[in-house]
Amino acid sequence: MNLDVRSLRTFSRLAHSGAEKAADSLTTLAGIDTYVNVTKVELGTKSDVENEFAERDLVSVHIGFSGGLDGHTVLAFSPESAERLVDALMPGIDATDAEGELAESSLKEVANIMLGGFIDGWADYLDTTVDITTPTYVDDENDGPLDHIEAEGFENGGDDEHVLVFRNQLEAADNAIEFDLYMVPTASSIETIVEASGEDGALPVESFAAFSEMINDGANQASEDITAMTGIDTTVEVSRLSFVPIEGVPMSLTDAVRRGVVLEFSGTPSGYIAILFDEPSAENIASSLLPGMEGDEAMRQSAIQEIGNITTSGFLDGWANALETTIDISPPKHVHDIGSAIIDPLATDLAQSQEYAFLIDSTIRTDDDEFTCDIYALPDETELRKALKQLSPAA
């Protein structure tokens, strides 16, 4: 499977257009104004995709597709959002009732129309015919978007096989309903789309996979560095690479207040990195580094800057070693604001030279949730292309 940054743009536009059609369908069906919040193209392993579903309590409907395009789609709601949607469609019906066959049927019909319209857009682009399966209702949070796949192209791959996931986050205008629309095409279908885009210079997926492994290694090193500094055991919960429209980068973060540092890195690749903690985590980590200094805000800010600096170095040093290059890091700048406001100026700066961004998202946490550290990196697209070419097996 080969990929190209320009092909990823095509994928993102198709996915966003399809999600807008799905949102329009829900607006018509339920009378709920719905819009697409953000569209991401995520590269991860099959186990990454399944683990994300396993960690969330979801009500979902799964539909496979085959023909000119093969793969799987999922419409996933929190139980609360599913209940609100069913109530809008069929007032008085409980979506969480185990015997609520009408609720299940209602969600399946909504998904059939929304996901069918989503797939039709891809079929039109490829000038082909795509058949979809009967919707499958799933209320077990352990079932992910690959568990029910029947289409050829998935069943022989192991958990470490890399897949592309098109993830669209949608929500109602009043925020009462939020849900995700997932599409996971097979590797052969990705090749079909790449060929249809007519782009030259596509790189083997191994290049992206190798970079993804660099991200994971960097997150593990950062986790070890945090543990060494604080004496608190930490683990990497998630580490992934997403391709996002530049304006969608701030929307990838919640509006919860965060505290941490922002740094700029330069070399191959170059870009920005933010090390962010929620406020309780920032307090806990500062206290672990400076016990008894609760009243000295300047010292606590300095402690957060120092751990941000060390974490960034651990995260990026592995990149420099793998690419046999030097990556310089600016002094850390302390930040304290809502997450989207912290990331927005970084995305705005990159938007002067690119329309899309590779967003690197890693989460480090303690087993008892004493603190959580989120790492967000935004490499410059031109420099990242150079890095990906160096990682190509043919390089």
Automatic annotation (TrEMBL):
SUPFAM superfamilies: CheC-like. One of its GO terms (biological process) is chemotaxis. One of its GO terms (molecular function) is hydrolase activity. It comes from the Archaea. Residues 59-142 form the Chemotaxis phosphatase CheX-like domain. InterPro entries: CheC (IPR007597), CheC-like_sf (IPR028976), CheX-like_dom (IPR028051), CheZ_family_phosphatases (IPR050992). Keywords: Chemotaxis, Hydrolase. Residues 299-335 form the CheC-like protein domain. CDD domains: CheC_ClassIII. PANTHER family: PROTEIN PHOSPHATASE CHEZ. This is Chemotaxis protein CheC. It comes from Haloferax chudinovii.
